[in-house]
Amino acid sequence: MADPLFDSPETFADEAPQPADTTMAMVVYALLLAGFVVGITPIVGVIIAYVYRGKGPPWLDGHYRYQIRTFWIGLLYAIVAALLSLIGIGLILMLGLAIWLIVRCVKGFKGLQEKRAPSNIETWLW
């Protein structure tokens, strides 16, 4: 006996592919930027990125990977800049780090609006 649920072509005719939900990826970018004001928010953001990684289309997963890399690379740059502040150049490097983070987050926001992965996910720069 045939199952009418699976034999009827009109059963799934009304279902359109669901667009990817970019809300959490936007929240993570915002949390990374909010780290300028409240220092703990990037940690919350990277945890969210780890949780949501692998649960969306490949282009959205690229954003989560980009965010995770931004957090860890930024942390490394911040440690180096803090150590070098002892000899005076760390403050200039901190300014460079701030610009680097803003550029990466703006690129990420733009990619989310265009529904595509950020370019050069593997890069250590922009």
UniProtKB/TrEMBL annotation:
UniProt keyword Transmembrane present: yes
InterPro entries (UniProt xref): MamF_MmsF
UniProt keywords, alphabetically: Membrane, Transmembrane, Transmembrane helix
Membrane topology note: Multi-pass membrane protein
Subcellular localization(s) per the UniProt record: Membrane
Domain of life where this protein originates: Bacteria
Transmembrane residue ranges: 27-52, 72-103
Pfam families per record: MamF_MmsF
Protein name according to UniProt: Membrane protein
Species this chain originates from: Modicisalibacter zincidurans
